[in-house]
Amino acid sequence: MAEGRARRLLGSLWIALLLGQPDPAGAAARSGSQSLHTGSLVRTFTPFYFLVEPTDILSVRGASVIMNCSAYCETSPKIEWKKDGTFLNLVSDDRRQLLPDGSLLINSVVHSKHNKPDEGYYQCVATVESLGTIVSRTAKLTVAGLPRFSSQPEASSVPRGSSAILNCEVNADLAPFVRWEQERQPLLLDERVFKLPSGALIISNATDTDGGLYRCVIESGGTPKYSDEAELKVLPDPEEPQDLIFVRQPSSLTKLIGQNAVFPCVAVGFPVPYIRWTRNEEELITEGSGRFLLLAGGSLEISEVTEQDAGTYTCIADNGNDTIEAQAELTVQVLPEFLKRPANIYAYESMDIVFECEVTGKPTPTVKWVKNGDMVIPSDYFKIIKEHNLQVLGLVKSDEGFYQCIAENDVGNAQAGAQLIILDLAPATTGPLPSAPRDVVATLVSTRFIRLTWRTPVSDPQGDNLTYSIFYTKEGINRERVENTSRPGETQVMIQNLMPETVYVFRVVAQNKHGPGESSAPLKVATQPEVQLPGPAPNIRALATSPTSVTVTWETPLSGNGEIQNYKLYHMEKGQDTEQDVDVAGLSYTINGLKKYTEYSFRVVAYNKHGPGVSTQDVVVRTLSDVPSAPPQNLTLEVRNSKSIMLHWQPPPAGTHSGQITGYKIRYRKVSRKSDVTESIGGTQLYQLIEGLERGTEYSFRVAALTVNGTGPATDWVSAETFESDLDETRVPEVPSSLHVRPLVTSIVVSWTPPENQNIVVRGYAIGYGIGSPHAQTIKVDYKQRYYTIENLDPSSHYVITLKAFNNVGEGIPLYESAVTRPHSVPDPSPMMPPVGVQASILSHDTIRITWADNSLPKNQKITDARYYTVRWKTNIPANTKYKTANATTLSYLVTGLKPNTLYEFSVMVTKGRRSSTWSMTAHGTTFELVPTSPPKDVTVVSKEGKPRTIIVNWQPPSEANGKITGYIIYYSTDVNAEIHDWVIEPVVGNRLTHQIQELTLDTPYYFKIQARNSKGMGPMSEAVQFRTPKALGSAGKGSRPVDIGPDYKPPLGGSNSPHGSPTSPLDSNMLLVIIVSVGVITIVIVVIVAVFCTRRTTSHQKKKRAACKSVNGSHKYKGNSKDVKPPDLWIHHERLELKPIDKSPDPNPIMTDTPIPRNSQDITPVDNSMDSNIHQRRNSYRGHESEDSMSTLAGRRGMRPKMMMPFDSQPPQPVISAHPIHSLDNPHHHFHSGSLASPTRSYLHHQVNPWPTGTSMSHSDRVNSTESVRNTPSTDTMPASSSQTCADHQDLESTTGSYLANAQDEDSAQNLPTAHVRPSHPLKSFAVPAVPPAGSSYDPALPSTPLLTQQALTHPVHSVKTASIGTLGRTRPPMPVVVPSAPDVQETTRMLEDSESTRSHLLSPSFHLPQNYEPDELTKEMAHLEGLMKDLNAITTA
Questions:
Q1: Dihedrals phi, psi of 5, to nearest 5 degrees
Q2: Are 147 and 218 in contact (CB under 8 A)?
Q3: Distance, C-alpha 532 to centroid of its chain
Q4: CA-to-CA distance for 1229 and 1429, rounded, in angstroms?
């Protein structure tokens, strides 16, 4: 069937072409009696339209109403009525009946508070069988409510000749039914007595006959309703002036075009005011105007308003003494009107057509379409295009009928219709028809278009004269659309405007001169799926919530196409072209910070995983108004006479009104009485005359703008003084007292002073000028002006200037002056040379001084003119193109506020007058480093896999390093609230960002902080990071905590345990004692010989002395480094701890990397209490033969302490205190020569300046009394200092040592003596400052303590005591240098003898107890170390 229809369509198209008829596809015929001939078929358009349509009606209850309607058609139409969209059943309705002409009659309108069956919207529907249906416009029936008075007349009085108003306010529906009575007789209205549309009565130019009783009456068809009576009294003329006030002001109106508008305006006062009107600030002419009429009392009536009448109307009342204003807006609305009506259309099936409809109106109308009386619902085949036009795609026979375009706005609606005729197809002519096209395929398939190609039919292989029609439809839809090829012989076509992911059915028909041939087989093709994006968010609303905020709400898109991830809300200020956007997660958002009383547009776009969806339509809202945010501008005062001053001003700046300016508030006061302020509120005029002032008095004035929200800020007080007496204006002013001219190149500045006689009014001054004559040009200026610049003159010309004062009588006597304008100056042709020799001198971490030279200056570089220099600078980063600039008037500039450790580039240019040089060559400078100003970032702590007691600390460098990072310090503690000096310190050398800490206690929370350092010092600490070590997974092994043997356990005084707790026999101990004593004696003898030999060689041979020093330095061997090693530079300064690298060698395991410490007091082997004297600390500990085994064993049991330097703020030379770590006694590889033992009661570190002069040695007994307990000391920390310095110092210095305070009483007497020891109460508190224990207190073997440091005094005696302590980090004290001990040098060799003697006497003393727990293997290792010592001593002696 469809194939036959297609053939007939193509045949009729072919016939139409032969006959020269218009193409049906282009809307072949239009309205009227025009017809389209297709063979023998003739169909014409049938006239069918409304003669009369219903109109809006206002009725009263009980009245009868007729809604008119009449339609025309050749066949009499059937008329029906709809009320509120529903057909009325008029057959069984006894009150409503259909009249013969189609009108609707409603008898006795019913209306009550709860039952309003007749009020509503009515529509007439006309139908002709087999033709179609049309509908009329809708008409509104309004029933007036019950008569009620919202206000009634009140008794009043009016002076004779003035105006009065009597109120009678009723609801708007009943206002036309109001009339007035005087003395209960109907009141005749005329031009003097007038009734307003609201019902109020205005009586102007009152006479005695206007007095009496008045009442208003509502006559709405029923019993009249009367108001209260009110008496109006007419008074005689007043003797005193009365204030001018409005008794009725105009209110804004909205009127339909063609209606009448009345603006009431009644003002009273004495003298009687005169009323005039302006529209949009232009004077409105009412006399002789046909449409503008001035009514009684000054009200304005506009007849038959037009769109041009819309605007702002201002009523101005003026009685000579005062002026007041009132404003109102007139808005004109326009019913919908058709600019282009739909036209009748002929068409064939499968064609696409468009009904065009253009409308206008105010407000802008909306358009909907109706087909045969039913609403057209937009779909894939019925679409609204270009806002108003209706497009029908793929016509079918049922689409035939009448289509109506209905336009509607707030004030009415209108309709216009057209007829669509679907023509029958003509039969094809005789002759061979083409066969079906072959091989129809889709060569390109997209989301919204498909390209089809095919081969020519078998019947016509060439196919040059064939055209093709492609029919397509959605699968399952019987609406078939057609697309024709553009030229004969073309075998492909692009079908567009398809729907994504939809199956379409295509077929192709070839056509020759005889008509269409066979159709190809149907081809099904599915379009590609489109990325599923969200649809528009429905119901978007914008509500202004404050003067600066708007809340926007919306709903979830109906076609979400997946989960909505977020929304983007766009907003834009009206008149701007840039949108702002914000991401929103919910369905509402409040935008703050908007401008007050400003229109904004808003739209919303939903986003899903594929991207942004379809935007909503813009919604426009205006923010709420507020009080003005700025005062009025340019307030000026003009003294009119002795009693009045005129004020002039301008509105506040644009954008600060914050609403509609409704008026201005003027406040004024006498300058002498500031508390007495008078207020005056005026209209929107920009001037105000203040009268009634006192003579010769100075007044201050200020003005503020008003909106409906209140009063904005006021201007500053401006003062003016009234005249002592009113000035004379019966004669012209006298001559100005002086006139001065100053010529320039193309202008002359004229200045003058007013006439000497100040009693004559001067309204202004007239300036005349010209070449040779002053009458060529004349300029008038204000009377307050005292100077003027005459522009656009000729250079080198002689001008004559005249000045005259004038007033309303005329111009006064002129004053003459002449001047010659200056000649043109030739600009200096020489260009400015840029500055040279630009240098950048770095002064600090943020300051650089820039200096330069200027070749255009004399040799002495002295600046004598007004030139200046511009310095610009930026960081030397290619991506940074932003310069900072500063001006200077000298040849240098101090640039401050720079970033530390940053490379900057600088250039300079010179400017003189209007000439500038180019930029000079650039100079570069890098600011000094500064201590880091931010802590390390991203501190993390993780447990090492397989080692639960080992953790790894990771971090990132600080963001503000302010220099090259040279190290870090890790602080950790189990108590986050502990003082910082009680935390354990772990130094990290270099810029490593990870560090291991071993032997932590299992299942214990630790807190970690990190501090970065550079060459300038320490930065701030990071925030504490908590980490809990894991629980033990098995029985205690190598890394497990020792078994707790109870708090009362005391070690034996006569001996100690081995590291493993195995006792040794007395025989082993005795043998060990003999070996150690023998080795000690031999060592002492060798040291004495070496010392004497080195001393002699140094005294006699300076060159050999230096070689000996080098040999001594080289004889000490250190793990991982046998070369010349520089001493570590470690400092403690106040609240910062600065660490510098110890070793420059590429040691893969540098010192101070992994530094385990004892985690509890049970890790510390007790020391015998008898070891409390006679062992003296050496200058350095020997490290030459210590094995890797001993280091790792000790590292598992002892914590390392960094060597530190603590500078004191004392005058140089500083006392130097040497410090080095000492091996604890429980180390199986301990050497007695590397440290000394002291009493545990002397666990304090004291430094005292040498009290003896240089060259005096400390006595042996004094040094015996210096005590020190050895506990928890690292064994891998000591490195030799360069021997070059010690050898050089030998020429001037004798061997000296510092002294220690010998008893606790001395220690108590010294204030603020910091001490260092390991507090046993917590496994991590390495440093503390305990109270001084009482003398003679028993020693607790579990109490750990730090080693004492030896001293080297270099200065003269000082009575003050300066102390330094490792355990006082973070406390404020004078800094004091603490250097790492150097290797033994020549001057120390003599002390080695003394130390050896002390050691020997100590070993032989009865109080000395040797350890009784050495195993044979350990003794063998000790012997190996002693042999190494002997070899080193031999090397020293041979050198």
A1: -65, -40
A2: yes
A3: 32
A4: 14
Please give the single-letter amino acid code of residue 678.
Answer: T
pLDDT value at residue 1191: 36
At 121, the amino acid letter reads Y
Rounded Cα distance, 407 and 386, in Å = 15
Section 1122-1151 average pLDDT = 40
Give the E-state strand segments of 928-1001 in sequence order: 937-944, 947-956, 965-973, 984-989, 994-997
Burial state string for 1236-1264 with b = 16 or more CB within 10 A and e = fewer than 16? bbbbbbbbbbbbbbbebeeeeebeeeebb
Tens digits of residue pLDDT in 225-284: 888 888 888 888 877 788 888 888 898 989 888 888 999 998 888 888 888 889 888 888
Tokens standing for 1412?
Answer: 């009784």
DSSP, collapsed to helix, strand or coil, labels residue 1289 as helix
Burial pattern 899-928, b for ≥16 Cβ within 10 A else e, equals ebbeebbbbbbbeeeeeebeebebbebebb
**Of residues 12, 827, 831, 810, the one with CA closest to residue 422:** 12
- Chain Cα centroid distance, residue 222: 68
Q: Which amino acid is at 820?
A: V
Give Cβ neighbours of residue 1306 (< 8 Å, ≥ 6 apart).
none
Q: How far is CA 1004 from CA 947, 1000, 1041, in A?
A: 15, 8, 13
Distance CA 961, CA 1019 (A): 8
Residue-level pLDDT at 38:
40
pLDDT tier at 1098, thresholds 50, 70, 90: low
Q: And the tokens for 1334?
A: 């009482």
995, two tokens:
């560090």
Q: What is the CA radius of gyration of the chain?
A: 55
493 within 8 A of 509, measured Cβ to Cβ: no
d(CA 67, CA 103): 6
Q: Which of 713, 765, 769 is nearest to 738 (CA)?
A: 765
Q: Which of 332-346, 941-955, 1016-1030, 1273-1287 has the lowest mean pLDDT?
A: 1273-1287
**Rounded CA separation 378/365 (Å):** 19
- Whole-number mean pLDDT of the chain? 75
pLDDT greater than 80 at residue 66: yes
Position 94, amino acid:
D
Rounded to an integer, the average pLDDT of 847-860 is 90
Task: Let me know how many helices (H) and strands (E) the chain has, helices first.
Answer: 9, 93
781 burial (CB, 10 Å; 0-12 / 13-18 / 19+) is: middle
Find the mean pLDDT for residues 776-797: 90
Question: What distance separates the 2 farthest-apart alpha carbons in the chain?
Answer: 153
- Mean pLDDT is lowest, of 137-141, 1357-1361, 1428-1432, for 1357-1361
Its sign, for the CA torsion 456, 458, 462, 463, is negative
Cα angle 562, 564, 565 (rounded to 5 degrees) comes to 125
In the block, tokens 């087999």 appear at: 130
The CA–CA distances, whole Å, from 1312 to 504, 610, 1324 equal 97, 71, 24
Q: How many CB atoms lie within 10 A of CB 1096?
A: 10
Q: Return the closest-CA partner of residue 837 out of 906, 921, 917.
A: 921
Two tokens at 1126? 């520089």
Contacts of 26 (CB under 8 A, 6+ apart): none
Q: Token pair of 1336, please?
A: 């003679």
DSSP secondary structure letter of residue 390: E
Residue 182's pLDDT band (cuts 50, 70, 90): confident
Predicted TM-score of the model (pTM) = 0.40
Closest residue by Cα to residue 842 from 887, 882, 894: 894
**CB–CB of 305/260 below 8 Å?**
yes
For the record, the structure tokens of 1066 come out as 């007395």
pLDDT at position 1041 over 60? no
**Tokens at 544, concatenated:** 């202004």
Let me know if 385 is exposed, middle or buried by CB neighbors in 10 A (0-12, 13-18, 19+): exposed
